[in-house]
Design goal:
about 240 residues, alpha/beta, 5-stranded parallel sheet, 5 strands, globular
C-alpha cells in the first residue's frame, strides 16, 4: 500500500517535509544565481509535501513563495521587484526574448495543477511579460502522472529557463536538488523499484553518493550503486 505522510499525519522534518528516516537535509546545497525567482503557489498545492514549489525556497536563497487564494487576491505590488522586468512562465506566452540579462529579470512560476495554474494565470495576466519556454523530453517528476506530453513540474520549468539563460552551473545544481527530492519521496512512498530505476539516469550517484547511502540504509530503502548502469527499458514518468 502506498504510504501517505499527509493522510496518516506522520511526523515530518520541518525543512524537507519528509518523514525523519527519509530526511534529505544532509544533501541540501544552496543554489545561487542572479535571476530573481518567485513562486505563486495555489493554496491546495501548499498542503502537498511533494510539490516542487516547496523545494525551490529551500534550496535557492531569496526565492519568494506566495500563496494564492481566489477570495484573497494578491496584488502585483506584493510580488514585483523594482528594477527588474517581470516574466510569467506560461505555455501561451511569447518566445523567450534573446540576450536577456538574468540580473535584470524576475520570473514568476505558477505552482499548482493545470486547472489551478489557469486560474492563477487569469490573475497575473497583466502583471508582466508572459514567456513560453521550449521544453522537450520527458518529465523527471515521477511523483505524479502528467496529463499530457510536454508538461513538467514547476522546478523543471525553472531548470529549462536557467539553461535558456545560460545559467548552466545553477541549472546543474538545482537538478541535483530536484532529483534528490523526487528520489527520496519515491522511497518514502515505498516505491523501492521505481526509486532504483530513477537513479539510472540521475546525477545523484556522482553528486551525493553519501546521501544515497544513508537513504539506502534506512529501513526498506533500495540499495543501488553510486554509478548505476543505464537501462534501455526505464520508465519515462509515473503512470
Amino acid at each position: 500500500m502506498a504510504r501517505s505522510v499527509v493522510l496518516k499525519q506522520t511526523p515530518r522534518c520541518l525543512v524537507c517535509q519528509l518523514a525523519p528516516r527519509w530526511c534529505i537535509c544532509a544533501g541540501l546545497r544552496e543554489v545561487t544565481c542572479p535571476l530573481r525567482v518567485d513562486v505563486l503557489q495555489h493554496y491546495m498545492e501548499s498542503y502537498r509535501p511533494s510539490s516542487t514549489g516547496h523545494l525551490l525556497p529551500r534550496v535557492m536563497p531569496g526565492v519568494g513563495r506566495h500563496i494564492f487564494r481566489a477570495e484573497r487576491p494578491i496584488a502585483r505590488a506584493d510580488i514585483a521587484q523594482p528594477g527588474r522586468e517581470l516574466w510569467i512562465l506560461h505555455p501561451n506566452g511569447e518566445p523567450l526574448p534573446a540576450n536577456a540579462d538574468p540580473a535584470a529579470l524576475q520570473v514568476l512560476l505558477l505552482d499548482g495543477t493545470w486547472v489551478q495554474a489557469a486560474e492563477m494565470a487569469r490573475l497575473t495576466g497583466a502583471w508582466g511579460r508572459r514567456v513560453c519556454l521550449p521544453m522537450t523530453g520527458q518529465s523527471r517528476y515521477w511523483l505524479r502522472a502528467q496529463s499530457g506530453t510536454g508538461r513538467f513540474s514547476t522546478a523543471e520549468a525553472l531548470l529549462f529557463l536557467l539553461g535558456a539563460l545560460g545559467l548552466h552551473d545553477a541549472q546543474a545544481q538545482l537538478r541535483v536538488q530536484f532529483e534528490l527530492h523526487v528520489y527520496a519521496s519515491l522511497c518514502a512512498r515505498g516505491h523501492k523499484q521505481r526509486a532504483a530505476d530513477y537513479l539510472v539516469d540521475s546525477p545523484l550517484g556522482a553528486a551525493l553518493p553519501e546521501v544515497l547511502e544513508k537513504l539506502a540504509s534506512a529501513k526498506g530503502g533500495p540499495r543501488s550503486s553510486a554509478a548505476p548502469q543505464r537501462r534501455a527499458d526505464r520508465p519515462g514518468g509515473l503512470a
